[in-house]
Each structure stands twice: as structure tokens, then as C-alpha cells.
């Protein structure tokens, strides 16, 4: 692996981001119901979206929402989506993206970063716990709310 970099989502990366692949069985974990519901009212001005490059190759995508006015505390500083290309999973790309997100949240004066995910075989739970998220609750749809205090 070369040097990992984080860049803004742009016309030159968006096609590759949309084509990031998943391993079989991972599709069902991509978008918990809570995100779909909240997404209908998400303000583009509060969204933070970044692409992970390995040298010049797109290997991952991470997005978050920073909105101190969000009704639920866990949506005020929240990892919205993280996706590492199937061929590049297990090499530290996801950990790198989360570290950068935490940096961003700190810079914005946030006190926590949350994530919402569905527990289950083949899902991202082990990854989120490994990079420091601790389960703190459940959404009304039964998804796990996990948090890193900054
Ligand atoms: C979840 C995901 C982003 C992880 O990215 P990744 O680049 O493979 O993760 P990393 O290589 O940075 O792993 C970081 C740590 O988590 C651990 N980890 C990652 N996936 C794991 C798994 N499925 N089971 C157990 N541990 C796991 C790694 O072993 C590593 O531990 P270490 O640093 O202590 O050695 C990636 O698997 C993915 O894109 N999944 C599909 C999309 C998805 O479910 N996204 C989350 C919902 S939005």
C-alpha cells in the first residue's frame, strides 16, 4: 500500500466512489433505517464527505454530519457512511478514515462522534469497536448507537 490521503469528493473521484465494491453480504449493512429516515431531512451544508486515496487510486469513502441543531444528540456529530473497496479492506484504510474524521470533529469543537449500525454477521460492528466506538444505546429501529468521546 502507498501513502493514504484524504481528499474532498469531486468530479474526478465521484465515479470511482460510486463504483467502490463490497464483499458479498455487506450490502445489507450500508444504510441503517435511521440514516435513511434522517437523510430525507439532512442539510447538505452540514455534510462532510471525503475520499480516501492510496497514491492516486480511490480506495474508500467516508461521510459524516456535523449539525449542532440536530434533534437527536447522536446525529449532531455522526459518522454517516464508511466504505472501503472490497479489495482494499483489512489494510487499515477504514482506521485511517475514522482517525481523520475524529480530527475533523475535534477541530469543530465536537465532544463526541457517534455511529449507527446494524449488528450482525458480516457487518461492521467488530471494525467500529476495534477503532474505538463503544455501544451506548439503540435507535427506535433496534440499531446500535456507538460513540467515541473526544
Ligand atoms: C467496515 C469497513 C469500512 C472496515 O474498513 P477496513 O479498511 O477493512 O478496516 P481496517 O483495515 O482499517 O481495520 C481496522 C481494525 O478493525 C478490524 N476489523 C475490520 N473489519 C473487521 C471485521 N469484519 N471483523 C473483525 N475485525 C475487523 C481490523 O482487524 C483492524 O484491527 P487492528 O487495526 O487492530 O488490526 C469495511 O469493511 C467496509 O467498507 N465494509 C462495507 C461497508 C460497511 O459496512 N460500512 C459500515 C456501515 S456505513
UniProtKB/TrEMBL annotation:
Recorded hits in InterPro entries, A to Z, give:
Acyl_CoA_acyltransferase, GNAT_dom
User: Residue limits of the N-acetyltransferase domain?
Assistant: 4-150
Q: Is Transmembrane there in the keyword field? A: no
Keyword Transferase tagged: yes
The record's listing under Pfam families reads: Acetyltransf_1
| Entry keyword set | Transferase
**What molecular function terms (GO) are annotated for this protein?**
acyltransferase activity, transferring groups other than amino-acyl groups
The molecule here is called: GNAT family N-acetyltransferase
Q: Which source organism does the UniProt entry give? A: Microbacterium ulmi
